[in-house]
Write a structure and sequence with these properties.
Number of helices: 0
Structural class: mainly beta
Largest sheet: 7 strands, mixed
Distance between the termini: 37 Å
């Protein structure tokens, strides 16, 4: 499984961004896809995830502001981020899990600043 992340950038507080994670390879084996982020000097943390059955999970800090969704037709998982705050700044990584393996995409920088 290979993952490519798109959509980072610079946005003002209160703005929106949409991240996309495109999977290729043995995508049929993916059980769960998640978005993680790592801020400078901090550990990588889960932001949101979605399972093959559609159930979702969010970090408390993003509930009500972020929405994760998947488009199976194009093997893509999107993260819509609204009402962005400076503390949302970080490198965002896409992660995919199968029964036996875990895969990471390259990070994409999200900077929330005025």
């Amino acid at each position: 499984v290979q993952l490519q992340a798109f959509g980072g950038g610079l946005v003002q507080p209160g703005g929106s961004l949409r991240l996309s994670c495109v999977a290729s390879g043995s995508t049929f084996s993916i059980d769960e896809v998640g978005w993680y982020r790592q801020a400078p000097g901090k550990q990588r943390e889960l932001v949101a995830s979605i399972r093959s059955g559609g159930s979702t999970n969010y970090a408390d800090s993003v509930k009500g502001r972020f929405a994760i969704s998947r488009d199976n037709a194009v093997n893509t998982v999107n993260l819509q981020m609204n009402s962005l705050k400076p503390e949302d700044t970080g490198v965002y990584y896409c992660n995919a899990r199968t029964v036996f393996n875990e895969y990471w995409g390259q990070g994409t920088q999200v900077t929330v600043s005025s």
